[in-house]
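Record type: monomer structure entry
Structure origin: computed from sequence
Chain ID: A
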Amino acid sequence: MSLLFLAGPSQASEEVVRLPVEQVIVTTDRGDIAFATEIATTDETRSRGLMFRRSMGEREAMLFHWPSPRLVSMWMRNTYLSLDMLFVAADGLVVHVQANTVPQSLDVLSAGREVTAVMELVAGTAAKLGIRPGSRLKHRFFNGS
């Protein structure tokens, strides 16, 4: 019985947590691109993020949102997928793209300026679809939408 109890938390900690999905549109020079996006708005969901995921579709994403601008630092702890991270200002403007992150790296990733959101995509998606600084996110969180 105690072995099951001890094994339980370990398994639960590696459980993939799915969040509510909303559509986020990314506007680029090439046009609008829709992503089915999981929304992380609490400390708990933002700290969990895409940990332990083994796959993700090209048009799937996760959006980490904070209620006010701040310096945001991300890392890849327990994240098995390489990602592109879009750092986004309060008006929805993409101000920095961190492309092709290294899975499970503890290196700190940041835009070096205040943002209200970070959107994570499968690595290579930003380059393939023309998403770069200057692109814009359209969603209820952004006052420029």
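Annotation 1: Helices lie at 2-13, 43-48, 125-129.
Annotation 2: The chain has one domain: 17-138.
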